[in-house]
Amino acid sequence: MVDVILGLQWGDEGKGKIVDFFAKEYDIVARFQGGPNAGHTLYVGDRKVVLHQIPSGVFHDGVINLIGNGVVLDPVVLKRECDTVASFGIDLKKNLFISERTHLILPTHRALDKAAELSKGNQKIGSTLKGIGPTYMDKTGRNGLRVGDVLDKNFTTSYIKLRLKHQRLLDNYNFQEDISAWEEEFFEALEFLKKLNIVNGEYFINNAIRSGKKVLAEGAQGSMLDIDFGTFPYVTSSSTISAGVCSGLGIAPQQIRDVIGVTKAYCTRVGSGPFPTELTDETGEELRKIGNEFGATTGRPRRCGWIDLVALQFACMINGVTRIVMTKADVLDSFKELKVCTAYKLDGKETKEIPFQMDRQRPEPVYLPFDGWNKASSAANSYADLPETMKSYVQFINQYLGVSVQYISNGPGREQIIQVK
Ligand code: GDP
Ligand code: IMO
Ligand code: MG
């Protein structure tokens, strides 16, 4: 049995916290896509940890964490992160496993990411520059190197061959930076990687499922950043939706039970691309300040706006969402009036569908205003304690989406989450 937790917006919905919260109910937590472009924040005691490559179940004793074949892995980031996690007394030899089919991010992939972004000028994607796009290009282009290849005695020859190919591309971009220091740390990190548990991920997970183990698949990024269904080309390069779980772990669709979608009580986006409900005024600034909306991976300010039900309904549809977790409800505590986007206006007509090319078509949001609750909610620890106006806001969203919010997160802390009754 496999449940999925994934983001319904443009990423940073609070997936890390929610996966950490539910992890104790599962035997395995598995990442199925994305790479170190992800930044998943959790609190362990008073310490804040941001995970980029390791699944968010890692702080639970007895929970196995698997980096699946659909992920792209930067060994340098992984090594650094393993050191952080080990400083909490976690034994990674016991609870971290990596699929041999997982593609490797090379130093030249990072260089290519940077060169490609620079060449795009004002059309840049706003990539995290972690080498994600070029690594997935080498995967689908059938050139990439995988974790299992590191164990092969001819690895260096394959590396040099691919590096030469990348160098020709970098020359075309006129990319001049010296990356020899990156290569040095890359090879050091490969030695570290070799000592971790490298497994055949698809047998590992299917054998576990067959023996009755419960798996939680952890998404990275968000549905609106999906390579097929996101706001292309302003997207990431992987399948961030529930369909990606099957190809990213090697499991059959019949194994998937719940798809738990995470959304903020409002909306954010980091990087370029269309965002119909974005607020560029002081209300947006206030959301950023109160919500501390700065990227967990790059530190960039996140663009902020009202919740977008057109986009959320689309995300529920393509993922088959069965339950919703709403995060950061407490961030709205001090707002007198809230707005909910219930439709888009396109060429003078109202629609509840996501248009093909949002950045060219520029839909205008149609809003329904809501009274704010104007009351501190972060101290609440039961549904009864939550403001009535917050409950009406949530009920409206449930009705619109036809899927119910089952948990409301009212603070960044591990236990600040309330089950909806
Ligand atoms: P992820 O990428 O989806 O895991 O999300 P990020 O970690 O990038 O960003 C979510 C941010 O919101 C982190 O700083 C979390 O600590 C914080 N956070 C998560 N849930 C809540 C919540 O309910 N309230 C508040 N105020 N902060 C939250
Ligand atoms: P988590 O898992 C928010 C955005 C980037 C950029 C676009 C492409 O923390 O939610 P890429 O590095 O993939 O080439 O960037 O996608 N992006 C994210 N935004 N959260 C993320 O991950 C993101 N990962 C990538 O800002 O616009
Ligand atoms: Mg994040």
Summarize the structure in words.
This protein has 421 residues and is of the alpha/beta class. The chain folds into three domains: 2-101 and 199-260, Adenylosuccinate Synthetase, subunit A, domain 1 (Adenylosuccinate Synthetase, Chain A, domain 1, 3-Layer(aba) Sandwich); 103-193, Adenylosuccinate Synthetase, subunit A, domain 2; 263-419, Adenylosuccinate Synthetase, subunit A, domain 3 (Adenylosuccinate Synthetase, Chain A, domain 3), CATH 3.90.170.10. The protein is 32% helix and 21% strand. It contains 13 helices and 20 strands. The protein has helices spanning 15-22, 75-86, 92-95, 107-120, 132-140, 155-172, 180-194, 201-210, 243-249, 282-290, 309-319, 358-361, 388-401, and strands at 2-7, 28-31, 40-44, 47-51, 64-67, 72-73, 96-99, 103-104, 197-199, 215-218, 256-264, 267-269, 303-305, 307-308, 323-327, 337-346, 349-351, 364-371, 405-409, 417-419. A ten-stranded mixed β-sheet has the order 9-7-5-2-10-1-11-15-19-20, sandwiched between helices. Strands 14, 16, 17 and 18 form a four-stranded mixed β-sheet that branches. A two-stranded antiparallel ribbon has the order 3-4. Strand 16 and strand 17 form a beta hairpin. Helix 2 crosses helix 7 (180-194). The longest helix is centred in the middle third of the chain and has 18 residues, at 155-172. It is globular. The mean pLDDT is 97. The site of 6-O-phosphoryl inosine monophosphate has 23 residues, from helix 5.
